[in-house]
Amino acid sequence: MPSFDRRGFLKAAGTGLVTLAAGPALARAPLAGTQVPGLYRMKVGTIEVTAILDGHLDLPQALFPKATDGETGPLLDRAALPRAPHVNSPVNTYLINTGDRLVMIDTGTATAMGPTLGLMPKNLAASGVTPDQVDVVLVTHMHPDHVNGLITPDGKPFFPNAEVVVAGAEYGFWTDQAIMSQAPKDVQAFFQMAQAAVKPYADSNRLRRISADGEVVPGITAVAAPGHTPGHTGYRIASGNQQLLVWGDIVHAAAFQFAKPDWSIAFDSDQNTAAASRKRMFDMTATDRITVAGMHLPFPGIGNVVRDGDAYRFVPVSWRPI
Ligand SMILES: [Zn+2]
Fold first, then answer.
1. Alpha helices (runs of H) in 165-294, residue ranges in sequence order
2. Residue 12 CB: number of other CB atoms within 10 A?
3. CA atoms 306, 139, 111, 48: torsion sign
4. What number is the average pLDDT over the span 59-79?
5. Distance from the alpha carbon of residue 162 to the mean position of ligand 1, in angstroms
6. Looking at residue 9, what is its pLDDT?
7. Residue ranges of the domains in the chain?
8. d(CA 220, CA 163)
9. Nearest in space to 148 (alpha carbons), one of 197, 187, 195
């Protein structure tokens, strides 16, 4: 075989010795019609992080109470997105291999939220990890798109050997029967789903309540970010001089909220506190150049926050070898 390197290729191309696409060879195959596995991997120092896609939601623009039609159109144009009434919002989860622990951050929706979601188990398998290998699940908050993947459809633990870690304020809120009984009927369903998701872990003494901030697993620290929910928590992964802040639901629509940090989503239980946490996270990660990962940022949901005038812009990570 002749050696074939870049220099040889360029030389041959220059002398016309390379003929491309010769002949009528047509590769006919049925269209796949489905996506490839939703996985992306990166390193944070010596720690390996795998983004695992659970699927996507279509969020109506009306969920952003402060947004006006005059503002959303230009923001969608700027993001090269259609001026549609819905914005696409993925649901991401993250698998962290610290070297001696396998840690999931959030778990996706399982079957709770329809056919465009619930892909985490399939994508976790595609990453080469089985649920019984997972040691710890860190919960950012107890909404169904984050904790429903903790259980199988028949209510058994999806991660049979894992300890679940959640902020005490978050656990206390969703398991409080008095708060639940005062909530509107459709919101009560959220309480019931949250309680069912953590129950088998709590029943077998595998649920740890934490008070942010502090180290939860060697190399991973909880960072309180309340507002979206009472105990909403981010997790900072640090190794060597590198950091990744998995910030949960600080942003639901990247096209809107980096430019308009004030725009809380209707799901934010305290709109003003959520906006304050969002601004604090944007300022900190832009100033300190900390890479972020978000459950509803465009998959893999990893990138950097940069300042843009009085507001911010999201720069998604570019593919690179590990
Ligand atoms: Zn969410």
1. 168-174, 177-182, 185-203, 254-257, 271-287
2. 13
3. positive
4. 94
5. 22
6. 58
7. 36-316
8. 15
9. 197
From the CA of 161, how far away is ligand 1's center (Å)? 25
Residue 150's pLDDT is what?
98
Above 50 in pLDDT, residue 222? yes
Distance 301 CA to ligand 1 centre (A): 13
What's the confidence (pLDDT) of residue 11?
Answer: 64
C-alpha 144 to ligand 1 mean position (Å): 8
CB burial class (10 A; 0-12, 13-18, 19+) of residue 246?
buried
| Span from the CA of 146 to the centroid of ligand 1 (angstroms) | 6
Rounded Cα distance between 73 and 204, Å, is 50
Cβ neighbours of 311 (radius 10 Å): 14
- Spatial neighbors of 300 by CB under 8 A, at least 6 apart, are 40, 51, 53, 92, 293, 317
Is-contact 110 124, C-beta < 8 A? no
Does residue 1 surpass a pLDDT of 50? Answer: no
Section 94-114 average pLDDT: 95
- What mean pLDDT do residues 96-122 have? 95
| Cα-to-centroid distance, 17 and ligand 1 (Å) | 56
Query: For residue 250, how far is its CA from the centre of ligand 1 (angstroms)?
Result: 9
What distances in angstroms separate CA 113 from CA 58, 124, 136, 225, one per listed residue?
11, 19, 24, 25
Q: Count CB atoms within 10 A of the CB of residue 191.
A: 19
CA of 59 to the centre of ligand 1 (A): 11
3-class DSSP state for residue 88? Answer: strand
Q: What is the pLDDT of residue 220?
A: 98
Kindly state which CATH superfamily the domain 36-316 is placed in. Ribonuclease Z/Hydroxyacylglutathione hydrolase-like (3.60.15.10)
Q: Which residue stretches of 217-297 are H helix?
A: 254-257, 271-287
Distance 107 CA to ligand 1 centre (A): 11
Q: Both tokens of residue 85? A: 């009434």
Distance 264 CA to ligand 1 centre (A): 13
